[in-house]
Description:
The chain is of the alpha+beta class. Helices cover 20% and strands 13% of the residues. It contains four helices and three strands; from the N terminus they run βααβαβα. It has a three-stranded antiparallel β-sheet with strand order 2-1-3. The N and C termini lie far apart (91 Å).
Amino acid sequence: METDRYQVILTGDTVAGADPSGVRTRLAALFRIPEEKAEALLGGRPVVVKKGLDAATAERYRARLEQAGAVAQVAAQPPEESAAPGDASGQEEGTDRAGPGPEAGAGLTLAPPGSDLSDPEPAPPLQVDLSGLTLAEPGARIGEPREVPPLQVDTGELEMEEPPGPPASAPGEERD
Length: 176
């Protein structure tokens, strides 16, 4: 069966002669992601960035990525990935599927939605110099209390309106 669905794969490399930092910046703008995540797309490992496309659309994506300086390729999407959810494909929904077949490169996988593609670096240990601090005994007064003068508010220019009275009755009407 001939497939009519394709996927676009970033190989993880940059176009020959392209500045990697410029490519990272352009990819971040193209995908609307932080530059750290765009750098993970250039980590040397293939990443599927779009799938389920027709041939013309997949080729436009590939060309746009190569304009940004990243090497991309279009590959036929394996039938099990283009099948509708809930069909009898032999896999439960939400389980990891094998990557594309040998025609697109072995070992490719697609990260689950919302995955962080960057390798997070651990935060450096916090180093705070506390040698200049001392503790007072319990109950010690640390600061001197200060007098706060009473607030002076001038209300001399304010006026009060009279509250509205009962509604006037129309002539000839009686009020209860």
